[in-house]
DNA sequence: CGTTAGCACTCCCAAGCGGTGAGTGCTAAC
DNA sequence: GTTAGCACTCACCGCTTGGGAGTGCTAACG
């Protein structure tokens, strides 16, 4: 049940024309653009068959054809020729990112902005995952009033900081040795289960610290749970409203409402098995609000550890040829820059 | 040229009816709802005069009247009776905020969410302003590879942290004395001009530190410039799309595009002289995209210093009676909680 | 003199109605 | 297998029409 060469060509032309114009494409246009050198009538036969096979849809009789989700899927998997990025664009991107590589938060936000601008879609970026980092240093800064700031720095430039209450018997002078103790015990561990285990060991060894360690553990757990430190950044929501598929405000509203729930966005970006860029098309999404939409997502890493995710969301009628390589490029650039910054 | 009692009553009814229904209100409805006990014809005369005076507008002949911006302004300033918050709502709010008072970022974000949900508008919150805080402690955590994390903690729970490159001749053992030196010199200063001055003094005293101090100054400047650390949080954009005034997508698009520019949002929230809650209505906004919209904004403070701003944005047809006291309450609650947290 | 009933008038809106044109599917010929 | 020809379908556009809401005006009323 494979598609023969001509059908593939027809499907490709239809997808690309529809992506460009947002209007159903008819047999005549396909005949003109496909360079197949056959008449519209022949194309019509092919289109009829493609529709029967589920790759095309007709909004109504006597309108042209529109790709179905299955059609887009086939296009993305088999037909699309990725459009290489312009060298100037590559340079601009690299320069912009390199400038902010120091602070992860800003980097992630900037990335979202750049992606959105370049693709005219909505961009989503979730930053390096805490779990993927290792604690490099622990500091306790006195704040007075029996409080101190517990700062943990991880190797990806993450800073976890929380105000903790000091046990009543505590003297500020004790902070420095305590700092060293914590650094020794927690350094090198990932701020997930590893650190928790280390905290427990320490708890048994020095029971006096119990109140402090308990707080540290609770606060860490809070950072790690969805919606904690790993913030999600969106950019370019206004881009979507420019697309004709969102002329119906209620659709746009449902989509925005969904995207405001950070938990759902995180779910949307959940890592798949694959290595490269993943495309999720229309009905493949579990949420109804996303049914006319596609998501193109990629991962970046820090050294050999998982970093975060970058993604672009737009109507299924999206310029995949441009978007897919762009997302891939941004993900790879981030990996490279972050890995070098960590210096491992 | 004051409005007599009956005109005030008529205007008030029209504003409130229009706010509730989003449809132009006619003389009959005003007669029914105003309890003035006069006929629609009389009301019509009043409405005609109110229109001539600029308080009302007519979308077209033979439609009811709609308040003009001037009409809303008069309503907000003179006619509106603030609707007290339900005690249950007050309690819920207080509990939710108190839970997150520890970390400023989360608190600000939560506030935006709560405001948006309660008012069915878009909420904007800009966090405590760095300039308004005082540095409480400075820490330098070694990161290896000639780098260290410079952490400055301010009294409002702000944490400013940056990776800095250490001068080549530096030994990690020197960090601790340096830390103490910095703490002594910078502690108590506001991270604006004050700290910069202190840095310069230190620079003269210990020229060896120059490369480090230079970095610190540059990074601080970066944090302080708009778009630095004082992040703006938005919540409830989807709420706006539900309003009938945004049935025209292009309008919504223009608005969203404006709100994506953090600089403009910050401008929008810029402090006015007044003490309480400020309402900016329609054409009073400099940006055209905001012409059908109103903003209700209030300030919160930390101790006796400026804190940040909370605001709500919606169509000019907004339930001011509810929104104004709500914004005021949220601002006051934040002030109270943050002031107590700082413990000054 | 303010208030009111009556009434003509305006104008939006929704529904109904051909005309138009794009695009199709079918059929028969090449 | 391909193609020209052709009837058919159906969204879209512009037009008209009827209805209804709400107004402004005028004249009468207390």
Task: Please give the share of residues in helix of chain A.
Answer: 40-55%
- CATH first level of the largest domain in chain A: Alpha Beta
Strand order of the largest sheet of chain A: 7-3-10-9-8
Number of helical regions of chain A: 13
Any guess at the CATH architecture of the largest domain in chain A?
A: 2-Layer Sandwich
Give a verbal description of the structure.
Two copies of one chain form a homodimer. Chain A is of the alpha+beta class. Chain A folds into three domains: 5-79, Arc Repressor Mutant, subunit A (Orthogonal Bundle), CATH 1.10.10.10; 87-129 and 231-342, Beta-Lactamase (2-Layer Sandwich); 131-224, Enolase-like, domain 1 (2-Layer Sandwich). The first copy, chain A, is built from 13 helices and ten strands. In chain A, the strands form three sheets. Chain A has a five-stranded antiparallel sheet, with helices on both faces. In chain A, helix 2 (27-34) crosses helix 3 (40-52) and helix 6 packs antiparallel against helix 13 (320-342). The longest helix of chain A is centred in the C-terminal third of the chain and has 23 residues, at 320-342. The two termini of chain A are 49 Å apart. The model of chain A has no long low-confidence stretch (mean pLDDT 88). The interface between A and B is large, with 38 and 38 residues. Chain A binds a DNA duplex (30 and 30 nucleotides) through helix 3.
């Amino acid at each position: 049940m494979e598609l023969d060469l001509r059908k593939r060509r027809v499907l490709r032309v239809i997808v690309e024309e529809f992506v460009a114009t947002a209007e159903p494409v008819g047999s005549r246009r396909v005949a003109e653009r496909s360079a197949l050198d056959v008449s519209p009538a022949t194309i019509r036969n092919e289109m009829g068959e493609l529709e029967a096979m589920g790759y095309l849809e007709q909004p109504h009789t006597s309108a042209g054809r529109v790709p179905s989700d299955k059609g887009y899927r086939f296009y993305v998997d088999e037909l699309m020729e990725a459009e290489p990025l312009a060298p100037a664009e590559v340079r601009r991107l690299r320069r912009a990112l390199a400038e902010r590589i120091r602070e992860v938060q800003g980097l992630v936000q900037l990335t979202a902005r750049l992606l959105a601008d370049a693709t005219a879609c909505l961009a989503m970026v979730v930053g390096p995952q805490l779990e993927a980092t290792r604690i490099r240093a622990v500091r306790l800064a006195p704040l007075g009033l029996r409080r101190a700031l517990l700062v943990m720095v991880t190797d990806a430039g993450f800073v976890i900081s929380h105000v903790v209450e000091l046990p009543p018997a505590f003297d500020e002078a004790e902070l420095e040795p305590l700092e060293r103790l914590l650094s020794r015990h927690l350094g090198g561990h990932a701020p997930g289960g590893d650190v928790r285990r280390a905290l427990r060991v320490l708890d048994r060894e020095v029971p006096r610290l119990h109140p402090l360690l308990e707080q540290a553990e609770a606060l860490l757990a809070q950072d790690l749970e969805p919606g904690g430190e790993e913030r999600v950044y969106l950019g370019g929501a206004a881009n979507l409203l420019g697309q004709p598929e969102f002329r119906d405000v209620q659709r746009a509203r449902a989509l925005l409402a969904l995207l405001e729930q950070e938990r759902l966005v995180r779910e949307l970006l959940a890592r798949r098995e694959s290595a490269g860029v993943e495309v999720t098309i229309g009905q493949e999404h579990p949420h109804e609000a996303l049914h006319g939409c596609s998501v193109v997502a990629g991962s970046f890493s820090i050294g050999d550890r998982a970093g975060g995710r970058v993604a672009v969301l737009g109507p299924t009628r999206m310029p995949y040829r441009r978007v897919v390589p762009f997302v891939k490029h941004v993900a790879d650039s981030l990996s490279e820059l972050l890995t070098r910054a960590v210096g491992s």
